Amino acid sequence: MEKKPLAETAVDRMEKVFGEHREYRRAHARGVIYEAIFSANGLGAEYTTATHLQGGEVKALARFSHSSPDPTWTDVMSPVKGLAVQFLLPDGGITNIVGVNSPIFLAKTPEAFTKILGVVTSFKKGKPRLRELAKLLIQYPESRAAIKIVQKMHAPASFATGRYHSIHAFYFIDKDGNRLPIKYEWEPDAGVETLTPKDAGSLPFGYYEWEIEDRLQKEPVSFRLNIVIGGEEDPTDDPTVAWPEERHKLTVGTLTILPKPAPEADERKFDPTAVTEGIECSEDQILHFRKAAYSISEERRNSEK
Ligand code: HEM
């Protein structure tokens, strides 16, 4: 029998753990999508030839999401929230930045991620393979940091008050071909605000979607796009390691969410490896694995409609 590609096994396991939710994304299932405008301040032009960072405005789509692959989970059950942004470039192309409100990810390699999911599946079946889990955490000690962060994580008070990180590194390429390692951060103009677990516990289902819609009717919601410039010793291939806080950050523009929901765009896929000229993906294996996993999810959910 032919062996399945690992990305397919990973998506299958996500369905096993969280259930098969037809027509939904296989992760970050529940969310809302809005039209947006990105206004570049021109400071990025020194480091990259990417058109949307030269200065001036481009249209964009922004999808806020709860991370759970199960859309019936309450808002509080997924303290990790997402902001996926697709820039709609003047030449008809796109470039994406997909972020979450955590600076690091659980696994360094696709194999580690898929094995961890396999063990979680055993919990779901009521036969937890605890010894195997302990062995995995010894085999992949880098995964402990993200588990600790998520355990202690407080949900943002609103989709508008999360700081969203690309986690992966990318390279900016300037007009002379120089490569600069960077990570992205979306910094909320409303300020970072989180909820205590007690307050979060009292929120009704769908609160975040309702709150952002209500906020947009009253005031602008915007995020500054910061690029964090990597130092020589900062790993560009390891999403389990955060770069030091003191790294130089440069604001290259502002994303303003428009009070215009765009549900017709929800079919779209926000592939983090879809980047325009002037930007390159780093060597991070998880980043490249996501390309395949997102395509499998897109194919499944759209074929179910
Ligand atoms: C092994 C690693 C990962 C796998 C297998 C994976 C898998 C997936 C899948 C299958 C989807 C649904 C895609 C779709 O139907 O369009 C998704 C969505 C998403 N993932 Fe991941 N993911 C991984 C890592 C990450 C990381 C490191 C981040 C952090 C930035 C992240 C953030 C998101 C977000 C924000 C969405 C929602 C995008 C949207 O709104 O369309 N994922 N993920």
From TrEMBL:
Q: Which family does it belong to?
A: Belongs to the catalase family.
What is the protein's species of origin?
Planococcus glaciei
- Top EC class of this enzyme: oxidoreductase
- The reply to whether Heme figures as a keyword in the UniProt entry is yes
GO biological process: one example: response to hydrogen peroxide
Name of protein: Catalase-related peroxidase
Which residues make up the binding site for heme?
A: 294
Q: Main role?
A: Has an organic peroxide-dependent peroxidase activity.
Give the matching PANTHER family.
CATALASE (PTHR11465:SF9)
Instruction: Please list the GO terms describing molecular function.
Output: catalase activity; heme binding; metal ion binding
- The annotated active site, in chain numbering, is 28
Keyword match Chloroplast: no
Q: Which Gene3D superfamilies match?
A: 1.20.1280.120, Catalase core domain
Q: Output the Pfam families linked to this UniProt entry.
A: Catalase (PF00199)
Classification from the root reads:
Bacteria, Bacillati, Bacillota, Bacilli, Bacillales
Q: Which domain of life is it from?
A: Bacteria
- Which EC number(s) does UniProt give? 1.11.1.-
Tell me which InterPro entries the record gives.
Answer: Catalase, Catalase_core, Catalase_sf, Catalase_SrpA-type_pred
Every Catalase core domain range = 1-305
Name a single GO cellular component. Answer: cytoplasm
Ordered alphabetically, the record's keywords are: Heme, Iron, Metal-binding, Oxidoreductase, Peroxidase
Q: Which cofactor does it need?
A: heme
